[in-house]
Structures are given as C-alpha cells and as structure tokens.
Fold this sequence. Notes:
The complex is a heterodimer.
Chain A: H1 17-29, H2 37-60, H3 72-84, H4 87-119, H5 121-135, H6 139-150, H7 154-178, H8 182-190, H9 195-232, H10 238-247, H11 251-279
Chain B: E1 6-15, E2 22-32, E3 37-41, H1 48-56, E4 63-68, E5 71-72, E6 80-83, H2 95-105, H3 110-123, H4 139-152, E7 157-161, H5 169-186, E8 189-193, H6 197-203, E9 206-211, E10 216-222, H7 237-255
Parallel strand pairs in B: 3-8, 3-9, 6-7, 7-8
Antiparallel strand pairs in B: 1-2, 1-4, 4-5, 9-10
Helix pairs in contact in B: 2-3, 2-4, 3-4, 6-7
Amino acid sequence: MSADPPAKTGPARSAPKAATKQARRRRSSGIGAPIARSRFLMIAVAVFVGLGLAWWAATGLEWVKPIFLPSPGSVATQIAKLAADGTLWLDLTASAYRISIGFLIASALSIPIGVLIGSFRSWEAGIEPLVDFIRYMPVVAFVPLSILWAGTGDTQKFLIIFIGTFFQQVLMVMDNVKRVPADFIGLGRTLGLPDRKILTRIVVPSALPGIWDTLRISLGWAWTWLVLAELVAATSGLGYRITVSQRYFQTNTIIGYILLLGVLGLITDQVMKALEKVLFRQDGHSQ
Amino acid sequence: MTVPKLRIAGLDKSFGTGERRTEVLRDINLDLADNEFVSLVGTSGCGKSTLLSIVAGLQDFDAGDLSIDGAPILQPGLDRGVVFQSYTLLPWLTARQNIEFALKAAGYDRTACREIALEHLDLVKLSQSADRFPSELSGGMKQRVAIARALSYRPKMLLMDEPFGALDALTRHQMQELLTQIWEEHKLTVLFVTHDVEEAVYLSDRIVVMGIGPGRIMQTFNVDIERPRREEVMETPAFMDLQRGVHKAIREASRRPEMA
C-alpha cells in the first residue's frame, strides 16, 4: 500500500542563483530525472514536426517517386475526398463495429475467467497452462482457419480479434487479481464473508484499476488484429480499403489510412486513460 | 475456575511436509482473562504473528485446543476483530464506508451502520475525516480507521498484529496513547503482537516472551503499573526496570534456540 506521497523536492529557495541553476541542470539529465511538462511537450511535438518536414521535403524535392511515397498534401487531399464521398465513414463504422463487438466478447469472457484463475488454484491449474500454450500460437496463423470456420463476414473478424486478445487478457487479469493484497482477503475472512462475497466485494473492486489497464492495453492490440483480418478477407473496413488501394497503386490512401489507424489508436488509449482517472480517482492507483 | 476469554492449549504448528517440515510453534499454552491486554514479544521468526493468525482463524494448526468463551475456534469470525499491520483499508471506500463495510458484513441495517461508523470514527478522533478516502489519510489515520473498524462490530476480542510497526516514532506514541485510552474506557480482551518492548510494557497487563527454534513461550511478565497510564509513566523506574527485564528475556530466548 502506498503511504503518503513523497514531498516535492526542489532547490532550496535561499540558495544562490548560480548554484540552483547548476543543480537543476544536473538533475534534468540524470536517470529518471523529472523535466518540466512544457519541455516534454516541446520535445514530443518537435519529433512529429521534424518527421513531417522530412516527409514533405523528400516528396517535394522528388527524392522518392510518389507511387512509393506520396506527398503529405496528396495524402490529405485523398483522405478529404474519401471523407467527402462517404467512403471513409463507411470504412470507419464497419471497423469500429467489428472491434467493439470482438473486443467486448473477449473482455466479457476474459474478466470472469481471469478472476477465477487468479483466485482459485484448481481453476488456475485447469486453465492457465492451456491459455499460456495457445497464447504462443501466432494469431496470423489462425487467419486461414478462421476463414474456413467462419467465412469472410463479420464473425471471422470477431474471431480473429477474440483469438488475438482473449488469451492475453485472461493471463493479465489473473495477474491483476493476484496482486490484490493477501490481507484484504484476510480482512474479508475475519468479517465472516463467504468466498463469493469476498470475490465480488473485495477482490474484484480491488483489482479493477489493474483490469482497466489490461483492457486499455489489449484494446491497442485489438486494432492490429482487426486490420489483419480485414486485410486478408473483407469487403469493407479500414484494412479492406488499404488492400484495395494497393491494387490500384493508391499509395496516398494507404498512407492516409495507416496514419488514421494510428490516430484512432491514440484516441482510444487517451479516452481509456481519461476514464481511468475519473473511475479510480480515489484509489491512488492511477498515479 | 472460570472459563478464560481465550484459551490456547498445547498448540503445535508446522509448515511444509516431509524433510522440508519446519516446526514453527511447539506446545503453546496461554489463557487470556476477560478484558486482559496481553502482548506477544520476541525476535522475528518466533512465530508470534503466526500464533495471532491462528487465533484469528486465518491459518490452521496441527494439534492442540483453541477456544473463545469455551467454544472452539474453527474458522475466522466476527467474534474476533483483527487489525493488520498493513492497515487494509479498502481504497475505493471512504473512512466511514470502510467501517460500514464491516458493519454490513456483521448484519447491521443501513441506518445503524452509518450511526455506529460515525460513533467509532469519533472514538478514534477522526470525525472530520469521515468522507476522505484512504489515499488522503496519513498512515496513523489509516490505522485509526482500521482500529475503529475492528471495534465497531463489537467482537469478543481484538487481535492486533504489529499495528503500529509501519508508523514513525511520534505517530506511534500517539497511537499507543489513544489505544490505552480506548482500552481503559471501554475494556476489551486484546492479544497484541509487537517487537517494540516499550510499547508492550506501556499497553499490556501481561507480556509473553516467545523464543525461536521452534517458537514457544519462554517467560511471562505481569505489568503491575497502575492505570490510567499516560506517556509520563515511561519515565518511571518501575517501567524502565520492566522494560530492561523483557529485553533481557528476549535476548536470552533468541540466544539459546536448542534449549527447551
């Protein structure tokens, strides 16, 4: 359990200016040394801007052929065009629907199973080694099988997302549950609570911030599996559009969609993080 | 003779099986009278925490008898309130809700829960912090809530496992004073585990010194220091003599592990 937050240390106010400056400089370059938020943002933005400029220069000066790397302008125009004629929206909703359902099914199953195997050794013996085994089978290798089993419709997308996330989630949720302090369970027992109530009133709420983090991380992977499934066999969706565009050498669409996927992943991650702060504010876990 | 509040008779406990078997407790005999405050002291590894945990019902034992008011202890229960060293406040509940959590488990209705919780927060002088979350409380405050929680559902006795071990010296003193006050006013049977001899002398009616290899009771000290006790009592010769005596007993108990 975390005790009081450590007091903020800073250079003594009465210290001479030169000494303070020197101390600050030394501290900002050391391992784990804190830096100002503004400085952090500046560096992060600079990297994006730098890469963008390099891209713009490389295409503008025609160092590379547009068929391999179109200019930022061309990508932006193409995405705007696809957005205007509705294609982008259709692709986006198809993909969002698939990832939502696939991810929900995986999570709805992985959380209760993870809680059980994290709490009861015989459940762990029954499920954990099997899950660990399946976890190491490459998801990519399941794609042909999934088409054979489920065709090329949405079900196959759900299946691939499920295979890709469920087995990881189960083990991570198990780990979240095992981190619940033993004394919390001891407390429940000394209060005479039956196992079922200890699980629902102590173990699950206690593990919830960790489980939420597990969901956030696995949602990121789910995007990857979604696009993989759509690349191989689909008639709509972001991954499908990328494959089709390759056929017509529409590199600007491909790059635009890849960037879009990055942005979508970033947005979902930030939304999950923001929700975590609201949901588990008082727990002190999020810090 | 009347039935003791807590009876521990001929208790043995070991961990593991076969060659790896280690005896942790051998032939523990200890009776606690009603409203008696007894401390278990000894070096680490003497099994004092294990003994407390067994009395709490959180661990089983190999042989012996264990009873409260003559009824055998078979499992954890609401007749024994436990205070752990690690506070164990549920972080998603406020101080008041943490106490209500226990009361609800004990079967009190909602209005009673709220009333009793506030009353006990008042007892540990935390009325002002009723709606604060554990992350907003200091270590000492957290442990006060935990004590209030353990007292709230009126257990027959209180089991405390180094409850002040993680606190700084000043807070520890304040907590000891508070606990003595509560105990002197409300009277309760307490089994208290500590490695702090001064704390044991200050709080207890009786101190039980345990030795290692395997853990067993070596010596018992009656603390005949008058109550009510306030912090000044720690400066008196009687207090310091007893403290020295207990220290010496602990040293001897841990120095001669082979002698039974």
